[in-house]
């Protein structure tokens, strides 16, 4: 038996509530709702073959389906606590990897070695120190039902960050609170930390990671039918990118567009995400806006569409998309080649 400090491992609250379950003390943090053991019974991971639970095709397909949309083919992956490599095998059915490495202490690593490119039997911190793993070298780091077993999950998240490329993704799955919707707590003696949505996302945020997707109700097995899955990344910098909307495939081959609508969406949306060089002119029925400039392009009345042909018109409105489209089709149908609502560029 050993003791962990009576301080919340997630938010650092120095005086969390303390209560006893099964003769062992644990905490509950009123700030982030994290729970963790104070009294910990040692567990022999090196002598226990991990990976017996959660190996159904349905569960593995669900995990792979959660992760796959967020990574590109050719990624380098590192799975911490990879057990027998079942998730690696499931993901490789959906994506190609330039390398898929694992970390596993238990005898299950012998099976994992047949499914992965390399399996390490050292903590990530030691792999970094020895040079066996390079910093900022992985596009994807994964850990499933591992974080709850560790004395200091914060230290492991920090190590994960060190091996992640700046744009890399982190996938985590842990039991959600008690791990079962009908059971108020989990007394698995090998589990030290008991995460909820608030505590796990807060832990990631403390390390500069933004949770992009999270879901509860993920099934490991009958005992842990309510698990929490998250995918996190470092937050993207707040910067304008005019290619996001103006380089949309629907505008491919179009040199100039006419933008119908010179209201707030110009400053709030187009100014940040649409190349002004692609705009021929704006149309607005408000005479107070006509003869002015928006993004360096003139604002004209609707009759301007009658002075040319083969126009591509971008409807720069969400609320009035339908009536604007109807008016264009009725008045200028013969002169307009394409009508593209901004909703389609955003979809």
Task: Characterise the protein shown here.
By secondary structure, this protein is an alpha/beta fold. It has two domains: about 55-180 and about 195-235, Rossmann fold, CATH 3.40.50.150; about 245-345, Rossmann fold, CATH 3.40.50. About 25% of the residues lie in helices and about 30% in strands. It is built from ten helices and 19 strands. The chain has helices at about 55-65, 85-90, 110, 125-130, 155-165, 195-205, 245, 265-275, 320-330, 340-345, and strands at about 1-5, 15-20, 25-30, 35, 40, 75-80, 95-105, 120, 140-145, 165-175, 195, 210-220, 225-235, 255-260, 280-285, 295, 295-300, 310-315, 335-340. The strands form four sheets. Strands 8-7-6-9-10-13-12 form a seven-stranded mixed β-sheet, with helices on both faces. A six-stranded mixed β-sheet has the order 16-17-15-14-18-19. The longest helix is centred in the last third of the chain and has 12 residues, at about 320-330. It is elongated.
Q: Provide the structure class.
A: alpha/beta
Round the Cα radius of gyration to an integer and report it: 27 Å
Sheet with the most strands?
Answer: 7 strands, mixed
Number of strands: 19
Distance between the termini: 55 Å
Query: What name is given to the CATH topology of the largest domain?
Result: Rossmann fold
How are the strands of the biggest sheet laid out side by side? 8-7-6-9-10-13-12
Strand content: 25-35%
**CATH architecture title of the largest domain:** 3-Layer(aba) Sandwich
Q: Stretches where pLDDT falls below 50 for ≥5 residues? A: none
- The percentage helix is 10-25%
Question: Could you say how many structural domains there are in total?
Answer: 2
Shape label:
elongated
């Amino acid at each position: 038996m050993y003791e962990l400090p009576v301080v919340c491992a997630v938010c650092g609250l120095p005086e969390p509530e303390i209560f006893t379950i099964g003769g062992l003390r644990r905490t509950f943090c009123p700030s982030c709702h994290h729970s963790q053991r104070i009294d910990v019974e040692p567990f022999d991971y090196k002598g226990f073959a991990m990976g017996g639970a959660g190996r159904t095709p349905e569960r593995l397909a669900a995990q792979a389906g959660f992760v796959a949309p967020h990574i590109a083919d050719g990624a380098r992956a590192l799975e911490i606590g990879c057990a027998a490599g079942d998730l690696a095998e499931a993901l490789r059915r959906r994506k190609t990897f330039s390398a898929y490495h694992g970390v596993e202490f238990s005898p299950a690593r012998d099976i994992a070695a047949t499914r992965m490119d390399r399996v390490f039997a050292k903590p990530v911190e030691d792999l970094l120190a020895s040079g066996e793993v390079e910093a900022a070298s992985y596009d994807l780091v994964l850990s499933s039902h591992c974080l709850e077993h560790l004395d200091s999950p914060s230290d492991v998240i920090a190590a994960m960050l060190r091996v992640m490329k700046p744009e890399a993704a982190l996938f985590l799955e842990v039991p959600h609170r008690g791990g079962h919707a009908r059971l108020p707590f989990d007394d698995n003696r090998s589990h030290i930390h008991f995460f909820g949505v608030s505590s796990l996302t807060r832990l990631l945020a403390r390390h500069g990671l933004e949770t992009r997707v999270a879901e509860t109700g993920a099934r490991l097995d009958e005992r842990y039918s309510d698990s929490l899955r998250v995918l996190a990344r470092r937050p993207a910098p707040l910067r304008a990118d005019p290619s996001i909307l103006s380089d949309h495939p629907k505008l491919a081959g179009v040199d100039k567009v006419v933008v119908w609508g010179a209201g707030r969406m110009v400053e709030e949306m187009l100014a940040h995400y649409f190349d002004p060089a692609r705009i021929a002119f704006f149309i607005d029925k408000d005479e107070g806006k006509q003869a002015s400039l928006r993004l360096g392009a003139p604002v004209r009345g609707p009759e301007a569409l009658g002075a040319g042909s083969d126009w591509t018109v971008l409807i720069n409105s969400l609320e009035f998309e339908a009536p604007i489209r109807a008016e264009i089709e009725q008045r200028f149908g013969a002169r307009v080649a394409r009508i593209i609502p901004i909703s389609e560029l955003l979809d």
